[in-house]
Amino acid sequence: MRRFLTGLVAGSLLALAAPSLANPRSDYLMHCAGCHLVDASGVPPDVPSLSGPLGRIVASAEGRDYIARVPGAAQAPLSDDELAAVLNWLLLEYNRDTLPENFEPLRGAEVARSRANVLADPQKLRNQLWPDAYASGAQR
Ligand code: HEC
Which of 21, 90, 99, 134 is in the most buried spot, having the most CB atoms within 10 Å? Predict the structure, then answer.
């Protein structure tokens, strides 16, 4: 019985420790879903959807840079590798249909360079780079 209990305790400790190791989904839920919602659909027009449009955005170098420069991403209390993992997870989980075929996952070092340059006015850059991308009115 005692051995069983020890095993149980060790097992629960492992389960508790696991999310902090590398779990982009729980990082997303903890740091992003409060605004972008659990299914990444956002609250347009105020909070953009992260489900669909991101695949097209990362087709360009500017877009890869942009998604780590928006304040919500850049300033999240996540390491560069963790933020890269959250963004890659979002792209593969919710943007597979729009993702370029040759998409290369973001790397921590790349995200580090981007997020260091946090956008003061994300909306402005977004409208410059993708003037027609959100013409549907689904995004602000
Ligand atoms: C406090 C609310 C909030 C949180 C938390 C937040 N965001 Fe955002 N996010 C926004 C808003 C609002 C925008 C629109 C641009 C702006 O005004 O910053 C945005 C824009 C974005 C964009 C650009 C989308 C586009 O289509 O232009 C990405 C990518 C993004 N967020 C990712 C994240 C990630 C990843 C996290 C978690 C690490 C996160 N955000 C956390 C509110 C938030």
Answer: 90
